Amino acid sequence: MMASSFPVQATTARHPVRLVARVVGAVFLLVGVFGFVPGVTSDYHSMMFAGHHSQAKLVGLFQVSVLHNVVHLLFGITGLLLARSVAGARAYLVGGGAIYLVLWLYGLAVGSDSAANFVPLNTADNWLHLALGIGMLGLGLVLVRRTAD
Questions:
Q1: Which phi and psi angles does 111 have, rounded to 5°?
Q2: What is the rounded CA–CA span in Å between residue 142 and residue 145?
Q3: I want to staple 89 with a disulfide (CB 3.0 to 4.6 A). Which of 21, 51, 109, 140 is the partner?
């Protein structure tokens, strides 16, 4: 009985959804760190804690603030922690994908100059959030289903 459970554990240890969640979590962690690096983040001197007045842009494209960078760091750490199990990795990708789709809708509904734009978000962020939402949700669903078949 013990020998038959070993291959199952070895399979779940290398499950593709866990690998993808680890990669996504690591990328978010790096993005959060790079958001605090002058040069990688343009107009770094104008970075604010929160709000749309921050003119700092990660790679000159994505508007960031201290809060935005901290959220990326926390989201990355969460991904790395949840990737320790198949269920956690799937929950991270599916849940994170859903969060990013909601964030995309929020970014569309709230103007970039609105006081409600506290993260801050710009057009480039909105398109990235759409892609992340679809990609993470899709990978979380497909990778688990595909390996179960």
A1: -65, 155
A2: 5
A3: 21
DSSP track, 102-126: HHHHHHHHS-TTSTT--S---HHHH
Neighbours of 1 (CB within 10 A): 4
Q: Give the tokens for residue 52.
A: 């749309």
- Which tens digits make up the pLDDT trace of 44-95? 999 999 877 788 999 999 989 999 999 999 999 999 999 999 999 999 999 9
Q: Helix or strand or coil: residue 49?
A: coil
Phi, then psi, of 41 in degrees rounded to 5: -105, 115
> Per the omega criterion (within 30 degrees of 0), is the bond before 7 cis?
no
Query: Comparing C-alpha atoms, which of 92, 76, 84 is closest to residue 15?
Result: 84
- pTM, rounded to two decimals: 0.84
Sheet holding 41-42, edge to edge: 41-42, 57-58, 62-63
CA gap 99, 140 in Å, rounded: 13
φ and ψ at residue 63, rounded to 5 degrees: -65, 130
